[in-house]
Amino acid sequence: MGPGEVVAVLGESGVGKSTLLNALAGLEPLETGVVSVQGTVVSALSEGDCAHWRRAHLGFVFQAFHVLPHLNVAANVALPLLLTGQPDDGRVADMLDRVGLGGFGPREPRTLSGGQLQRVALARALVHRPLLVLADEPTGNLDAATGERIIHVLTTEARTQGAALIMVTHSAAAAAAADRVLRLTPTGLHAVDEAGA
After folding, report:
1. Average pLDDT of 61-69?
2. Which of 96, 99, 111, 112 could tie 119 with a disulfide, CB 3.0–4.6 Å?
3. Beta bridge partners of 185
4. CA 142/CA 125 separation, integer angstroms
5. Are 78 and 87 spatial neighbours (Cβ–Cβ below 8 Å)?
């Protein structure tokens, strides 16, 4: 897949969609094959080098959010920028605005709804302009209107920044926003035709 391309991965529960994302991120070892992102063979990196690569080049929207409870919203979103030595409060505020959380920076995660936490996770994944964004059910905890807004932000940011975006989803609206749709089955990944077969 190329820069700015959006791919949606569909599949039944338990087929391994989250495992696929973890393997692409270098969080789980591969049994076969390789993961290569713009010339870097991620699957061949040492654990430490892979962690550094993820920090600089990967945005991950986890299904379980992984928002740090001891940091406020702004600090959670700023974390990738701080880890790469590029603190930028303006970019953090802009990203919070883009996901509909303008003014939420000082709030503590425990005061947020599940949908708001999902948007914090999305802002954190995009704020450092990664090469690759992996999103695990990015609209899973959102109402339809907010879900559409998030998919618009996610796909627009990926395309604007030239980031490749892979999202696993059950959402027809999310899949419709993708350039390509793949279905994961026990036998592998398969292209989905326009009729959704």
Report:
1. 90
2. 99
3. 188
4. 17
5. yes
Phi-psi category of residue 33: left, alpha or beta, with phi > 0 → left and psi -120 to 50 → alpha = left
Cβ contact 109:76 at 8 Å: yes
Q: Alpha helices of the chain — where are they, by DSSP H?
A: 17-24, 47-57, 73-83, 89-98, 114-126, 144-161, 172-176
pLDDT in tens, 26-64: 999 888 899 998 889 999 999 999 999 999 999 999 888
In terms of C-beta density within 10 A (0-12 exposed, 13-18 middle, 19 or more buried), how is residue 132 classed?
buried
Task: For tokens 């993708």, name the residue.
Answer: 178
- At 196, the pLDDT band (50, 70, 90 cuts) reads very low
Amino acid of residue 52: H
Q: Identify the CATH homologous superfamily for domain 6-191.
A: P-loop containing nucleotide triphosphate hydrolases (3.40.50.300)
The answer to pTM > 0.70 is yes
